[in-house]
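Students often ask why inverse folding is considered easier than folding. One informal answer: many sequences map to the same fold, so there is more than one right answer. In these notes we will look at a single instance of the problem. The structure comes first.
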């Protein structure tokens, strides 16, 4: 119903809004700028960090619906989807989502597991994104805890050059071969409306709404209506249905040296879980029916964000961010009568995660009247109040809820020295204090050398910490069969990274633009937290700082552009070494290597302005040591074996055609052209909501889409 109502609202806007000029983001940019890791916004070529940028035009050409789909095209970023929970996290440099900091406009996003880490990227829609900036490597000095593998900074639209801007977008997709506009359980249906109004030269207001209705994918199952025969368990969905509504509203004031920006974001999401096990329910008089214990999951998230940029006195720049964020996750059990297609009863909603965060970050710079030396002094604080219901842990956590408050505060200092016209140096240090953990120090040294007018060399060293999560600190599962306890004495993990990046840019006499780049990175994470056996008889397990992780990365990229044609391609080879430990057994720490490659190509026909866009990514076969347990782990610790994760190829193709002076556009295409769905994975095992053992649900196969855009 929400899908149809939003479609009617969106289409109605076509009638009452007069045609206006296009959004300024569709205009050709003079120079691409970045903010991640910078003192102030500046050109990407002048950035002291190696920043990878995915701009609004690229996102539009991909025909994606959320940030997870965008980032999946990037080398050395693997989006790890969970077909059961519906969440998708970013794995960078081989490390999972706990080690990546996800920001929106420089502010970390609240999640179930913390602040900025393990953020579900499918909960970030793309219709109001200006660009996405990615920095790989440890960024602890600038962005604090959990920025071990890198930072993903999502920059939203704030400015419009025209008086009024409006865009309506409708996108219909198949889910594999499943699609139906009316029938429940078929396809994906996306509607969005973006509005921007420049009140005056100083004031701008924006608002947008996005509805993403993913009706799930049955896969090897037969849907929620299916009545199991005998002992088969074929009812349900391989990918759970997810209905998501995201809204944003913002106001911006800019005059002289001062700008103020306030934004509010609201997300509501519902996920439907259909049990594949049915129960026999006698009705009397020889009649019976079959019921399922189904469950709905609900998420509500509020993000309040305020940013001020101004000058203190005549010189000092101040950039301050303030944010209050909440996320509440609820579940609701109900009994469904499968043959009669009706609910028999529904329990009240139960809150199983609740996070409330106040966050602030401030930076002062430009203290000295010097073109050669500048330094930045900053602070960061977050106050997180978290609640985890007993049901979030295995065996109901022995019926105990967990409610804790953690306060973290940090000061950081860095200085940038322009030694001469070619060489710049920036050292930095951060001191972080916490009411839960010991004080943490992070360091960084970044250097940039212009080897010529066309090329530059960047050298980056940094460190960062990963703080333990709730499960690692507070899990308590003790019964006749288990003794698994969290460890409140865990210390944060420590990561170090070093990188070398070379870029070469040139333009030929024929207006061909070339960019060639090479990079090498090294990452070392010590004191990794792992569940280990701390006592054999009786068997007891806990969490300890015991594992180590190393990765080496070599890569190169080539970009070429002329007129209506552009091509970007890259290749990388990464080696991963892990020292795993069960408490009684240690794995080999040999390096295991795998390759990745990607390609993006766009071509626009001169006369018709028809755009053809192709995006391809290859992820090679990965090998990784994994623990193979024994029947009696208290006596036999088992062994470490080399598991494999199957390689795969992904390709998307889009054709779009504008009409009416670019006000109206139709796009159509194919996603996942190679029809990838489940891949072989002997490193992890399946569970109740994912694929069978030794398999991993990665995608749901090839799908087709049609998108309609109207720019007023």
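Output (designed amino acids):
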């Amino acid at each position: 119903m929400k899908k149809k109502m939003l479609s009617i609202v969106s289409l109605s806007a076509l009638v009452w809004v007069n045609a206006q000029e296009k959004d300024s983001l569709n205009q050709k940019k003079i120079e691409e700028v970045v903010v991640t890791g910078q003192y102030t916004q500046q050109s990407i070529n002048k950035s002291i960090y190696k920043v990878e940028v995915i701009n609004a035009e690229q996102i539009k050409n991909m025909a994606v619906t959320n940030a997870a789909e965008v980032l999946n095209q990037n080398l050395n970023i693997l989006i790890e989807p969970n077909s059961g929970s519906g969440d998708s996290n970013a794995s960078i440099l081989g490390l999972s989502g706990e080690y990546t900091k996800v920001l929106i406009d420089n502010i970390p996003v609240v999640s179930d597991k913390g602040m900025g880490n393990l953020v579900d990227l499918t909960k970030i829609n793309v219709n109001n994104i200006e660009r996405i900036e990615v920095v790989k490597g440890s960024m602890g000095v600038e962005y604090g805890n959990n920025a071990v593998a890198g930072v993903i900074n999502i920059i939203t639209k704030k400015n419009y050059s025209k008086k009024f801007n409006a865009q309506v977008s409708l996108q219909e997709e198949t889910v594999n071969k499943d699609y139906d506009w009316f029938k429940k359980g078929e396809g994906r249906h996306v509607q969005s409306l973006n509005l921007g109004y420049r009140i005056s030269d100083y004031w701008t207001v924006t608002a947008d709404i996005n509805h993403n209705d993913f009706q799930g994918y049955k896969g090897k199952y037969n849907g929620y209506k299916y009545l199991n025969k005998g002992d088969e368990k074929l009812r349900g969905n391989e990918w759970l249905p997810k209905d998501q509504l995201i809204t944003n509203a913002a106001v911006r004031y800019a005059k002289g040296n001062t700008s103020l920006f306030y934004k509010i974001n609201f997300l509501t999401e519902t996920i439907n879980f259909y049990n594949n096990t049915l129960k026999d329910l006698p009705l009397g008089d020889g009649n019976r029916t079959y019921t399922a214990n189904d469950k709905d999951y609900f998420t509500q998230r509020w993000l309040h964000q305020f940013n001020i940029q101004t000058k203190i006195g005549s010189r000092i720049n101040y950039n301050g961010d303030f944010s209050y964020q909440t996320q509440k996750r609820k579940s609701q059990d109900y009994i469904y009568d499968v043959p009669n297609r009706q609910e028999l009863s529904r329990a009240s909603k139960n809150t199983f995660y609740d996070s409330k965060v106040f966050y602030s970050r401030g930076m002062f710079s430009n203290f000295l009247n010097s073109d050669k030396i500048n330094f930045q002094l900053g602070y960061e604080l977050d106050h997180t109040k978290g609640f985890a219901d007993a049901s979030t842990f295995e065996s109901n956590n022995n019926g105990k809820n967990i409610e804790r408050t953690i306060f973290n505060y940090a000061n950081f200092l860095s200085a940038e020295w322009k030694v001469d016209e070619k060489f710049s140096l920036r050292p930095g240090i951060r001191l972080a204090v916490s009411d839960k953990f010991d004080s943490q120090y992070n360091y960084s040294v970044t250097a940039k050398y212009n080897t010529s007018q066309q090329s530059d060399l960047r050298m980056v060293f940094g460190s960062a910490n990963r703080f333990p999560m709730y499960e690692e600190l507070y899990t308590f599962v003790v019964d006749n069969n288990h003794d698994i306890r969290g460890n409140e004495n865990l210390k944060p993990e420590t990561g170090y990274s070093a990188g070398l990046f070379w870029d070469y840019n040139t333009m030929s006499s024929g207006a061909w633009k070339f960019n060639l780049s090479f990079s090498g990175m090294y990452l070392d994470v010590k004191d990794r937290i792992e569940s280990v056996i701390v006592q054999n008889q009786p068997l007891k397990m806990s969490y300890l700082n015991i594992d180590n992780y190393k990765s080496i990365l070599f890569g190169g990229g080539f970009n070429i552009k002329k007129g209506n044609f552009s091509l970007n391609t890259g290749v990388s080879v990464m080696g991963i070494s892990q020292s795993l430990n069960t408490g009684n057994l240690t794995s080999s720490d040999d390096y295991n290597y795998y390759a990745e490659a990607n390609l993006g190509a766009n071509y626009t026909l001169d006369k018709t302005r028809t755009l053809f866009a192709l995006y391809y990514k290859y992820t090679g076969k990965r090998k990784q040591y994994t623990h193979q347990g024994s029947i009696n782990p208290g006596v036999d610790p088992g062994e470490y074996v080399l598991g494999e994760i199957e390689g795969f190829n992904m390709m998307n193709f889009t054709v779009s055609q504008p009409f009416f002076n670019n006000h109206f556009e139709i796009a159509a295409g194919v996603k996942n052209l190679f029809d990838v769905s489940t891949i072989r994975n002997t490193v992890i095992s399946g569970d109740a909501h994912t694929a069978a053992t030794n398999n991993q649900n990665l995608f749901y196969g090839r799908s087709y889409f049609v998108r309609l855009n109207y720019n007023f």
